[in-house]
Amino acid sequence: MNFSLNEFLISVSNTLDAIETDLFGVPTNHSKRIAYIATRIAHKLMLKPEEIFDLAALSLMHDNGATMKILDDKINYTVKQKIAVSESRKEHCLIGEANLKHFPFLTNPEDIIKYHHEDYNGGGFFGLSGDDIPLFAQIIHISDNLDLKFDLNHTSKELLVNYIVANRNGKFSIFLSDIVLDLMDEKEFWEDLKDENIKRALEHQIPLFANALSFKNIRQITHTLSRIIDAKSILQEGTQQDYLVVCLKWQDTIILIRRQNIKF
């Protein structure tokens, strides 16, 4: 069966949008911006298409283990504060890594989500430093930091440049810092980061791929999506687990899968 990985990735992205709307009242586009910045870096590095696809997937799902259940609804957090708190615990890196076990990556990336909060100089949850940190994890880390620290729709270029320069060879490698600084010189980069442009811009950056997958494979990757929904759900425990509907476009057919009734 010819299964469009891009269609599935967009389904994941749309699902995350729906969850963000449920949590915050509006989609934050946080993961889309991380994926966009990461893939722009990847193109600068001239990575292989398969690697760029996997990096995009990992970036979109980088905080899939960051449950929002730890937040007290009565606390008046801003959207940025809620995202920062949800990503501030070591466990979300381990949970996120485990959640993606069955995702159909093309290059078998390992420990990217686990180590995506490691600083180049050795700070972070696990104490890795330098090139001991996987490259993809470093790319997601610098991309994530920019969107968590600043409102990329409105923050001045000068503030962002100063932040990268101040953390060059500290939180971030000199190599990746310089690539991001180069990107910031492009007018298109700033236009693409705007909420109204980010979805189209990201889709343009992701190479097209389709794989031959069995129904068993498809079932496994829908479980990936269900684990993300369960982790982020603020609904009553079990609600999302009982009724997961995943939209998969395959050979021009929309397959609606109700999780508890999947039989392949």
Fold and architecture overview:
The protein is mainly α. The protein has one domain (2-211): Hypothetical protein af1432 (Orthogonal Bundle). 52% of the residues lie in helices and 7% in strands. It has helices spanning 5-24, 30-44, 49-60, 79-86, 91-99, 135-149, 157-167, 174-183, 187-192, 198-205, 215-232, 239-242, and strands at residues 2-4, 210-212, 245-250, 253-258. The strands form 2 sheets. The chain has a two-stranded antiparallel ribbon. Strands 3-4 form a two-stranded antiparallel ribbon. Strand 3 and strand 4 form a beta hairpin. The longest helix has 20 residues, at 5-24. The radius of gyration is 18 Å and the shape is globular.
Give the overall pLDDT as a whole number. 79
User: Based on DSSP secondary structure assignment, what is the total number of beta strands?
Assistant: 4
Q: Report the total helices.
A: 12
Series of H and E elements: EHHHHHHHHHHEHHEE
The CATH superfamily is identified as Hypothetical protein af1432
Computed structural class: mainly alpha
Helix coverage percent of residues?
40-55%
